[in-house]
Amino acid sequence: MTAQPVPAIRVQGLKKSYQQLPVLRGVDFDVARGSIFALLGSNGAGKTTVVKILSTLLAPDAGTANVAGFDVATQATGVRRSVSLTGQFAAVDEILTGRENLVLVARLRHLKNPGRTADDLLDRFSLTDAGARRVSTYSGGMRRRLDIAMSLIGNPPVIFLDEPTTGLDPQARIDVWQAVKKLAEQGTTVLLTTQYLDEAEQLADRIAILHEGRIIVNGTLAELRQMLPPAKVEYVEKQPTLEEVFLAIVGADGRAGDEARPTVDTDQ
């Protein structure tokens, strides 16, 4: 028999309470290496608590968690060397340029060639043209992409993205989605927490729904869809979504083209 591959993340029976208030009531899930796993839930469901425990920022009350082959309780140093965490708000220095932010982190992590590392990541996240600009001039999506790029310095095998597109406009969200997809394509394991259904649908190989402290469903998008009755086939006129309208007007680069702008008849 072929041995089953060891998951990048394994969580079993995880429990956590805050002052008698149970937040996690026994959470179980595995994340395959090189995949994107979405932990979906409403505000207060416990998503960030899970991420804090997996990144060793918080101790569980019960249960076990293993990340990149290390136990979060007994091998915290190994976990920290193997993961990177990007929170809900971009942790970048606005006074520095994008490249300077990357070089600084590379130096703090004692990499041999911080300049080359910075240039490679600027190219990887389509920020080369903005690399010499101060981050204070960046859009929200650019800051978020820079934040994710900074978290990849040192090539951690596992990255946690805690609601990475909160507060971003539609085009910036798509830019971040593309960056996340590239991470998985290059072998990084991504655990993504989100409250946006479309985000989980666009990105995740597997989706787990966290509700009232427990995982109530865990599967691929196709498996989750099979839980509902077959859809009725009806022929209706399909209207474009607001997102499709927005992107058609502003264009993929965020600038409205002349052909996309509505015209006004001045003769009337």
From TrEMBL:
Pfam families, sorted: ABC_tran
Keyword vocabulary terms for this entry: Antibiotic resistance, ATP-binding, Cell membrane, Membrane, Nucleotide-binding, Translocase, Transport
SUPFAM superfamilies documented for this protein: P-loop containing nucleoside triphosphate hydrolases
Coiled coil (UniProt feature): none
Gene3D superfamilies (alphabetical): P-loop containing nucleotide triphosphate hydrolases
Membrane association type: Peripheral membrane protein
GO cellular component: plasma membrane
Subcellular location: Cell membrane
Residue span(s) of domain ABC transporter: 9-237
InterPro entries according to UniProt: AAA+_ATPase, ABC_transporter-like_ATP-bd, ABC_transporter-like_CS, ABC_transporter_ATP-binding, P-loop_NTPase
GO biological-process terms attached to the record: response to antibiotic
MF (Gene Ontology): ATP binding; ATP hydrolysis activity
Chief place of localization: membrane
Family membership noted in the UniProt record: Belongs to the ABC transporter superfamily.
Protein name: ATP-binding cassette domain-containing protein
